[in-house]
Structure formats: structure tokens, C-alpha cells
Fold this protein.
Amino acid sequence: MPVSSEIKPRKDVFVYYGLVKAGVVILVALSAAYIFSRQVFLISPILFVLLGAVLLAVMFAYRAVAYSKEKYFFYDTRIVRHSGGFFTNHETELIVKNVTHVKKTLPFLEYKFFRTGHVYIESAASGISEICFASIDHPEHVLSKIEMLMKENGFSLTKKKLLRKDMPSTLGVFFEVFKAFWAT
């Protein structure tokens, strides 16, 4: 089957913004480890700075390799995602007839600064048949392309008014995630 189109994530967002998010986590973790180690052991702060630099370099290399392998292909009856890491290659194929959910997410900071978002597609065929279009430009165009592909494959898409959508409270999620930290 001929490929009708190919999409890649936006490089600066996929690699560098992901690296900034990872850098914040690494900074917090290493700061906490330094404060703890200063009380128990006498370890030089230079060791933590070097460890942080090495972790950021590895994370940058991983994000760059992941970006080079991240591609999304649209065919007549299926959508394929190619991805991978340092030593792996993945291919996820989703048959359009089995699509159950399509969701567009616009993360606040990412959309505010870069105008990129994510589109998630879930399938009924298997629990692992899910494709996430990560950090793509114009997620609404990708969503409309998916809807058009679904219509061509026999879906009648009528949009109804959403009656109710349940989501946990942000404060509840925060306390649930950090309950072990609070207990300590």
C-alpha cells in the first residue's frame, strides 16, 4: 500500500523541551541526594554536579536517538508508528477499523510556547495497540486527518455533546503520588 503521508514530531520540542523537563527532575533528585548525603556522609558537591552533567548528556543522546526513529505513517486502512531508543526499534500498527478512542491533548506550557500537542489513538484489538503522536505541530490537523481516515474506513462520526467527564482532582493526585514523601 502506498503511504499517504508521513509525520515527524517537532525536533526542538521533542528533544530539547523533553530534556529541560528531565533536567528539572534530575536537579531536584540530585539536590535532595546532596542535602541527605551532607548530613550523613561528607561527599563533595562537585561529584553531584558531574553526575548531573553525565545524566543530562545521556538523556540528550537518548532523546536525539528517539527523535531520529520517531515517525508516523498514514496508510489507507492503518496507521503505523516507528520508534525506538539506543538499542531498540519498535513498530506499532493500528488498524483504523479497530479504533475506539481518539484524543487530542494540548499540554499547557508546551502549547503556550511552541504550539505543539499530542494526539492519542486507542484500538480495541489489543491493550498495547495505542499510538501517541507526541509533540507534533498542528495537532488539530492530525486529528482531522485521522477523522477523515476513519470516515473512509466506514465510521460515521457524529459529535455529541459531552455530558460528563470525570477526572481526579489535581490536589488529590499530588497527595497520592507524594504520600510516601509526606509520611517520611
In short: The mean pLDDT is 86. The first strand starts at residue 5 and ends at 7. The radius of gyration is 21 Å. The chain has six helices and seven strands.
